[in-house]
Amino acid sequence: MNILIVDDDIVDRKLVKNALCTTTDFHNIFEVSSVSEGLEMSCHHAFDIVLIDYNMPKVNGIEMLIEMRAKPNLGDTAIIMMSSSEDSVLALECIEAGAQDFLSKSDISLRNLNKAILYAKKRFQSEKSSHESYLAVKQLAEQDVLTKLSNRYHFETQVSVMMRSREDNASEMALLALDVDNFKHINDTLGHGIGDSVLKDVALRIDNVLGEHTYFARLGGDEFAVLMTKVTHYDQIQQLSNDIFEQLKAPFCINGKTINCSVSIGSAVFPKDARDFQELLKCADIAMYRSKQLGKNQINYYEALYQEEFNRSFNIQNEMKVIIDESGFRIFYQPVFATETKSIVGFEALIRWPQKETMYTPDEFIPIAEESGLISELGPWIITEAIQQLSVWHKKYDLPLTMAINISPIQLQNEELVTHLLKTIRRCGIAANMIILEITETALFKDNEKITEMITLLSSYGFKIALDDFGTGYSSISHLIDCPIDIVKFDKSMQSSVYEGNKRYKVMEGLSIMLNNLDLTVIAEGIETEEQSNVCKQLHLGYQQGYLLSRPLPAKEVDSLLNSAPALMNYTASPLYSIYSS
Ligand code: C2E
Ligand code: MG
Ligand code: MG
Fold first, then answer.
1. Average pLDDT, the chain
2. Distance CA 126, CA 130 (A)
3. What does the alpha-carbon distance between residue 531 and residue 67 come to, in Å, rounded to a whole number?
4. How far apart, in whole angstroms, are the C-alpha atoms of residue 156 and residue 154?
């Protein structure tokens, strides 16, 4: 057996050595007089047993014990502590620090020493194997199985410790929350096997660009996080994320498939933005969410302002859920007038927040409904309400009034839209060509093919398609050609101070000639003044809508309008009527 004796007292060392030498077993005995020599020697030799004196002048024996136990495989040796004292508290302290036995020097005899060595060796074997299983469990608990990165739990523990022990106040830490763009789509279309390979490859590529002072983890699903310590300039964060974007530029080739994959990043800084890990991650997530909103594959930084915005939309979303359950939303109807005759030809259904202390405009809550998926409940409800209302007016007034319904791009991606529309018009006895579906140009840019197909299908059933908010986006002419558009709605922003001779007027004039040549019906929105209304007439814009003629109204008020002014509805006088209603 290889045995090391660490004791500053030469007499005691001799005592132990003599005791060991009287056995029949052969021992290879080494002796040193200090902890530093002992540690040094244990680096070069493998010992079966190390006997350490507790009391030594420079460095205490227990320190050597602790140091040995911190080494891989617990230092790979059994340790027996010795002391001239018989103090049981001391003995316990040594056992707790990892010694296998404690011997009082007065008890050292051949018999006792042999017994202690034998037992200590056995004990150490079993401690080592339980330590190994502990390490395996620890690895399982701390490591993400797929990518072998730290998991969320371990990352949080590590980061929290670093936050508490941040020594230099000159530098900050940045947490980057990363989320793989369109990962759900990859998983859904190519399967989970390929999804897993993408995640592994993404992790590997990101890992390639991470240098010193960075910690990388997979938080779950397609979410990753990088902690950067020692951040002195925010440029460092930008630089790292640029490197990440660059790394992910080349497509991934998995099982013969070529997959393009990017990430959206949000960054928050400790201690500027947050006081603990949870808060920091929340801030980074908010910034990441912003990157997604702004078109993905980019980094955004957390700012307190975004937090307010985030809280506000979170509250709106929650309130919306309740209102939907209670059927609490209302619909207002804004009349559309024929320019020539000033007769009402139809309405546009516009959703309204219930009458409450705080109310939100559709411009604010519709995008939230779209992002949160609530539009899939709200959209069909609006369609049902508006068509039912139209059928009431049709029966009551016997006039071919149309109803325009705003359709969100999300609704256009779901085939149920067609079934729901057809079912509702049939149930209410309304012809499809009395329903105008208003679509914004941004919808046509989203998933062009699928949405164009959907619009073509709706058009084939007879629904009229209106391109809403024309003049705000790209006003791409190709959409007018590729899509079965019947009506173009000039956005209200085109109206502000339009008068003959100015540039805006000339643009509107040119567009009107073009649209009229394409046999498209035009509705000018946001008509607030007589002058604007007259411009519509000069430019032969068939229809107009705006506060000058009528604000959006609750159904009851529309009723009194229709009752009180039947002369308004001189349809046949409108030259564009045939296109609008046929
Ligand atoms: P939009 O479809 O372009 O609707 C016209 C907006 O202009 C309406 O705002 C209307 O109240 C407003 N407006 C009408 N005449 C005038 C005017 O003379 N001057 C001015 N300054 N504004 C006028 P609203 O109701 O706040 O709706 C805003 C947007 O929210 C709508 O724009 C539409 O994109 C969306 N939205 C409204 N209701 C719905 C809905 O039921 N479903 C969906 N998906 N979106 C809706
Ligand atoms: Mg509209
Ligand atoms: Mg509009």
1. 90
2. 6
3. 89
4. 5
Quickly count: other Cβ atoms within 10 Å of residue 22's Cβ: 11
Q: Which protein residue's CA is at the shortest distance from atom 10 of ligand 1?
A: 552
Return the HEC string of 412-477.
HCCCHHHHHHHHHHHHHCCCHHHEEEEEEHHHHHHCHHHHHHHHHHHHHCCCEEEEEEECCCCCCH
Query: Residue 540 — left, alpha, or beta (φ > 0 → left; ψ -120 to 50 → alpha)?
Result: left
Which atom belonging to ligand 1 lies closest to the Cα atom of 411?
44
Q: How far is the CA of 489 from the centre of ligand 3 (A)?
A: 6
Q: What is the pLDDT of residues 233-263, one digit of tens each?
A: 887 898 899 999 999 999 999 999 899 999 9
pLDDT band at 305 (very low <50, low <70, confident <90, very high): low
**CA 15 / ligand 1 centre spacing (Å):** 98
> CB–CB of 434/467 below 8 Å?
no
- Read off the pLDDT band of 86 (50, 70, 90): confident
**Which of 3.40.50.2300, 2.130.10.10, 3.40.50.150, 3.40.50.720 is the CATH number of 2-141?**
3.40.50.2300
pLDDT for 19 beyond 90: no
Domain with CATH 3.30.70.270 in the chain: 152-302
Cα(127)–Cα(123) distance, rounded to whole angstroms?
Answer: 6
Which residues does a 6 A CB cutoff place in the pocket of ligand 1? 334, 349-351, 361-363, 366, 382, 406, 408, 438, 468-469, 492, 525-528, 545-547, 552
Calpha distance 257→235 (Å, rounded): 36
Q: Where are the beta strands (DSSP E) in 154-297?
A: 172-180, 214-220, 223-231, 252-254, 257-259, 263-270
- Say what percent of the chain tops pLDDT 70: 95
For CATH 3.40.50.2300, list the domain ranges present in the chain: 2-141
Cα 14 to ligand 2 centre (Å)? 99
Residues of the chain with CATH 3.20.20.450: 321-491+552-564
User: Which whole number is the average pLDDT over 496-508?
Assistant: 80
Q: pLDDT-based confidence at 23, cuts 50/70/90?
A: low
Q: Phi, psi at residue 223, to the nearest 5°? A: -105, 130
* Domain 321-491+552-564, CATH class in plain words: alpha beta
Closest CA to 297 of 190, 184, 464, 181: 181
Is the Cβ–Cβ distance between 568 and 342 less than 8 Å? yes
Q: Which CATH number fits domain 152-302: 2.60.40.10, 3.30.70.270, 3.40.50.2300, 1.20.140.10?
A: 3.30.70.270
Ligand nearest to the CA of 436: 2
